[in-house]
Amino acid sequence: MNYAQNILGTIGNTPLVKLNSIVKDIDALVLAKLETFNPGNSAKDRMAVKMIEDAEKQGLLKPGGTIIEGTSGNTGMGLALAAIIKGYKLICVISDKQSKEKMDILRAVGSEVIVCPTDVEPENPRSYYSVSKRLATETPNSWYVNQYDNPSNSLAHYEQTGPEIWEQTKGKITHFVVGVGTGGTISGIGKYLKEKNPNIKIWGIDTYGSVFKKYHETGIFDPNEIYSYITEGIGEDIIPKNVDFSVIDGFTKVTDKDGAVYTRKLAKEEGIFCGNSAGSAVKGLLQLKEHFTKDDVVVVLFHDHGSRYVGKMYNDEWMRERGFLDSEKVVALDLVKEHINAPLITVKTEELVFHAIDRMRANDISQLPVVDVTGFVGSVDESDLFKLYFNDKESASTPVKNVMSEPFPIVKKNTSIDAISKLINKDNSAVLVDLEDGNYQIITKNDIINAIQ
Ligand code: PMP
After folding, report:
1. CA 261/CA 282 separation, integer angstroms
2. HSE of 174, CA atoms in CB hemisphere, 13 A
3. CA-proximal residue: ligand 1, atom 9 (nearest)
4. DSSP assignment, residue 201?
């Protein structure tokens, strides 16, 4: 019989999979190390178990003890699995920018979760660095993991992930690309690979708002570079001891938007449903494409699974709110989705101007399509009626047909926002969308502005 003694026995030996369409512009074999296949769905299972076992050996963690860590979620998951099997209590201190899914998942595997604000300096007593350190001193029989500075973090990757990649590529790997947070993954794997073959190039993926790239290139820790960003898992506002800059050849920075867009592309184009840092890694790889040639074997590591990001990068609304959806992908139907079942408000040709004004005021709108039995025959706009009324108060009793302008243009459901915005100008304040079921909806300048902001 072939079975693991417990869930920890299933960690490691994750698959290496060729990337195809998403890297079609790269002239090299690109292979993805899918760390999502670990039981906690991330690379962090490896180092979590290693850190715990080394702490046990060093007498830092004693039976029945409490493990405390400031974690963005994945390390927490790995620690939780090991804590269950080995009988420890776990407290995870997490920053409020992490996805709700990550927090719920940690609670599901028995961890206590304490949420701290992101927008404070690491030294601030409310930061998750400070809170986790304080809890560790206050809680009896506890051990503070400190994945940033704990050498067992990168050692796990030196002992496991590095050798796996070397063996899976039969030593043919030429480049390794990976997102950098604590630095454990890049430093452990980078050290192992460079020992095997010093010509292998190791590239780190950094975010805007993080200090790594500049620090690596200039040795300067520049606080001006630090601001809060959206990308999860990579980039730092500190230099963790686990980042071994001597094994890293270079960094490239990827924007929050690109990271999010490429996370989605990876799922749609390759069927690989991974987390945010995988998208950043792929985009970073494409940014580095001039470094790769035909015979190269490039390995990129994907840290965690997409399920933790369904409310974020995989959610259209979340993406749109941040301006991460490319505007050409937003179409007429998206713009009217929220009021699609509300009847279109119109005015008839024979109604009077004051009817039109009343209807706009009652419904808090600024324009109306004008209809007769044949359909849409004109339009009226708040500012035109306003001018008309103040020039001639009698005009309120004029039939709408005498003052109306050209009808609003009609577009199809799949017309792009770019095409629609070209139709809206100072002479024309809206367009109508043909819903192809006999109904129409209106798109105004405000709807466009709300969609692109
Ligand atoms: N991606 C994700 C999703 C992560 O959780 C982490 C860990 N912070 C990383 C990348 C970076 O890995 P490391 O900490 O080993 O540098």
Report:
1. 10
2. 11
3. 233
4. E
Pair 166, 173: CB distance under 8 Å: yes
Q: Catalytic pick from 18, 24, 33, 44?
A: 44
41 lines ligand 1 (CB under 6 A): no
C-alpha span between 84 and 239 (Å, rounded):
31
Ligand 1 pocket residue status of 234, Cβ below 6 Å:
yes
Ligand 1 atom, smallest distance to 180 CA: 16
Q: Counting atoms of ligand 1 from 1, which one is nearest the CA of 275?
A: 3
Residue 188 Cβ < 6 Å to ligand 1: no
> What are the pLDDT tens digits along the chain (453 aa)?
999 999 999 999 999 999 999 999 999 999 999 999 999 999 999 999 999 999 999 999 999 999 999 886 899 999 999 999 999 999 999 888 777 878 898 999 999 999 999 888 888 999 888 898 899 999 999 999 999 999 999 999 999 999 999 999 999 999 999 999 999 999 999 999 999 999 999 999 999 999 999 999 999 999 999 998 999 999 999 999 999 999 999 999 999 999 999 999 999 999 999 999 999 999 999 999 999 999 999 999 999 999 989 999 999 989 988 989 876 578 999 899 888 888 999 999 999 999 999 999 999 999 999 999 999 999 999 988 888 888 888 888 999 999 999 999 999 999 999 899 999 998 899 999 999 999 999 999 888 888 765
Ligand 1 atom 4 nearest Cα: 233
**Binding site membership of 185 for ligand 1 (Cβ less than 6 Å):** yes
Q: How far is CA 189 from CA 162, 175, 192, 200, 376, in A?
A: 4, 11, 5, 11, 66
**Which domains occur in the chain, in start order?**
1-325 (3.40.50.1100), 329-452 (3.10.580.10)
**Residue from 35, 105, 176, 185 to probe ligand 1 pocket by mutation (most atoms less than 8 Å from CB):** 185
Query: 72: Cβ below 6 Å to ligand 1?
Result: yes
Residue 412 falls in the annotated catalytic set: no
The span from the CA of 347 to the CA of 359, in Å, is: 8
179 Cβ closer than 6 Å to some ligand 1 atom: yes
Secondary structure (3-state) at 116: strand
